[in-house]
């Protein structure tokens, strides 16, 4: 394997560690070797930027200061605390993992790559981050930043998520991870990706690896990583029915199982083939026992990893007590909705509803 590497791997670690000593970031989860906050930060950082994560991380640790308090909380409270960070499956995995650590591992994080990867939501890179950062074990990591650094360092001419590309990146990550000081090494290579080897335009002039970098040598630094071929995603059409009485609106919590589980939304149904949005909205209103007198208020689009959603919004004016009771819903104001964990597409409906309420008069009561 090592003959594939066009430089001495030890030199990469030495250069990165020297650079990290001077230029590494001071982040709240770096003030500890406790695997609990390190794990929380790694999960939060999976799809979210450092700047956005910091306040959520601090608030989360205040609410759930250790793995036992997280395991003891109802999962709905964990999702509530996560509200705004997106990709809510991460919150459910955090909770499920905390429960497993408490029940199966007596509150201690397991100490091998295999054991960590058996926990919900912990893949190979996150397991490597926990082992290297918390326990200083020589476990490689391959998060988005590290992927980009290695792709350029080795001038990989394959998309980094292709199966062949992925295999090569892991082999290089393993070969470069030093036997010692992995606590610093892992953070150093992540920081290099976040601060210097940037996605759009790498700052090669500031890079400690510039003399080793194959992409730089070949003039490919700005072109790598190669983009994955675009997938054509199917479009799913849905209608949402926002039922209001005065300034209060009905929302329901999605079942904990399945996609977007535990998040709140306005009653929703899929628009069937051959149906118009109006017909689907009337069908939904009938199911809810509501008379649909309003018209469509607007439409939003939202992208998911495997489909695109076109969501059309209708509003019905209705006495809410009976509907809410029958639907297991909650009646809230638009202001309350800002802080409820609504799923992304329904969050996009809020400006439409605010405008609608402004036009109609927010205190109008359908009984009057
Ligand atoms: Fe990235 Fe440039 Fe450094 Fe290569 S030299 S690792 S492209 S910043």
Structure description:
It contains 17 helices and seven strands. The protein has 368 residues and is an alpha+beta fold. Strands 1, 2, 3, 4, 5, 6 and 7 form a seven-stranded mixed sheet that branches. The termini are far apart. Mean pLDDT is 91; it is low at 362-368. Iron/sulfur cluster is lined by residues 149, 152-153, 196-197, 202-204, 207, 209-210, 213, 215-216, 221.
Keywords:
7 strands; 368 residues; alpha+beta; binds iron/sulfur cluster
Helix proportion: 40-55%
Shape: elongated
Radius of gyration (Å)? 25 Å
> How many helices in DSSP terms?
17
Overall number of strands: 7
Bound molecules: iron/sulfur cluster
Percent of residues in beta strands? 5-15%
Distance between the terminal alpha carbons, to the nearest Å? 78 Å
| Topology as a string of helices (H) and strands (E) | HHHHHHHHHHHHEEEEHEEHEHHH
Secondary structure blueprint with pairings:
Elements: H1 9-23, H2 35-45, H3 50-63, H4 67-72, H5 75-82, H6 89-105, H7 113-117, H8 124-135, H9 144-153, H10 163-176, H11 182-195, H12 214-217, E1 235-245, E2 248-253, E3 264-265, E4 268-270, H13 277-288, E5 296-303, E6 308-317, H14 320-327, E7 330-333, H15 334-339, H16 344-347, H17 350-360
Helix pairs in contact: 1-11, 2-3, 2-8, 5-6, 8-11, 9-11
The structure holds iron/sulfur cluster.
